[in-house]
Design a protein that fits this description.
Immunoglobulin-like
Length: 337
């Protein structure tokens, strides 16, 4: 069913052959791979070029787009001015338009055909044939998709490519342009989705006041957008000095009467005071907050998709175990674009 229209175009405009390939390329930002955050909009382009110039350029083309991360909407009308001759009313395309027909989440039969039969008895197609299209790379269409929420690697692929080229030696004085079939091949787009995540793990050490320290966060661990990501610790002893440290791997190692949740090598932040209730009271109103700025993350080599692990240490001089050590649980943070 989905190939009915394109088959009719083939019968009207030429027979298959294998001398020439139509090579399609799907890119985003000039690359076949892109890394984005959950739910991001991904803009893409589709370009095409013929594998040789032993012809007079494209007469028609059509292809399907399939994205394993969700449904696709129609792509744009022709991306280049000369491609207008492949779209109604100058050319011929499927009833839903040059931008394809959404069916079951896929996009079917993007493209169209020129008026190579010099049709003139009906209102359309009404265009004249332009030669040489596809001898150099040409923008066929632009579109966008929505990245999935779930982290993973997804593919936007081109399938079912059909094409005809104008046979060499045919001239405008002929009754109609002679066309022959062409094969097709394509390079798709790989979309890597990285979710901005901050999640707790490991076990905190109960402090001298019977409280369980807890790591937390605020803002978004992203290398773009608002520069607002904070790693926090709460339920800490008030008015006590502390240091947050982080690394690139988790741990679960006995330390200071509690658990070390981060594997060395460790990166230590500047010493902070926990604040909270004024002395001489001792309670669990202390907190810490460390700004992981985008510049600091990039300087530290924390790129998109990197996960780092953080934990808060503080002085707890009245702890009954005599270690003078307070420890939070751990926080695992994954950085997104």
């Amino acid at each position: 069913m989905k190939n009915t229209i394109i088959t009719a175009i083939f019968l009207a405009f030429g027979l298959p052959a294998t001398a020439t390939d139509l090579e399609l390329s799907v890119e985003s930002g000039g690359a076949h791979q892109v890394t984005v955050g959950s739910g991001a909009t991904v803009d893409f382009t589709i370009t095409g070029v013929l594998s040789d110039t032993n012809n007079q350029g494209l007469a028609m083309f059509a292809f399907d787009l399939v994205f394993d991360g969700g449904s696709l909407d129609q792509v744009s009308n022709p991306g280049s001015p000369e491609l207008l001759n492949f779209a109604s009313p100058l050319g011929i395309n499927n009833p839903a338009g040059y931008g394809g027909t959404p069916i079951g989440g896929d996009l079917i039969q993007v493209g169209g055909a020129q008026n190579t039969i010099k049709q003139g008895f009906a209102p359309q197609p009404s265009g004249t044939t332009i030669t040489g299209i596809g001898h150099a790379s040409v923008l066929l269409a632009t579109g966008s998709l929505t990245a999935p929420v779930a982290s993973g690697v997804y593919s936007l692929d081109v399938e079912n490519i059909f094409a005809n080229v104008i046979r060499g030696g045919t001239s405008p004085s002929d009754l109609f342009w002679h066309v022959v079939g062409a094969d097709g091949q394509a390079s798709g787009l790989e979309v890597t989705v990285v979710a901005c995540e901050a999640s707790n793990y490991c076990t905190a050490k109960q402090n001298s006041q019977g409280c369980t320290p807890a790591m937390g966060s605020a803002g978004t661990p992203s290398l773009s957008g608002p520069d607002d990501f904070l790693v926090t610790a709460s339920n800490m002893i008030n008015n006590a000095t502390g240091i947050m440290f982080w690394g690139l791997a988790p741990a679960n190692t006995p330390f200071g009467g509690g658990t070390l949740c981060v594997s060395p090598p460790l990166v230590r932040t500047a010493v902070q005071d926990s604040g909270g209730t004024s002395p001489p009271a001792i309670d669990c109103s202390g907190t810490y907050s460390h700004h992981f700025s985008q510049a600091a993350m990039q300087t530290a080599g924390l790129g998109v998709g990197t996960t780092f692990y953080a934990q808060q240490w503080q002085r707890d001089v009245t702890h009954s175990d005599g270690t003078g050590t307070g420890l939070s649980d751990g926080l695992a943070v994954t950085i997104c674009p």
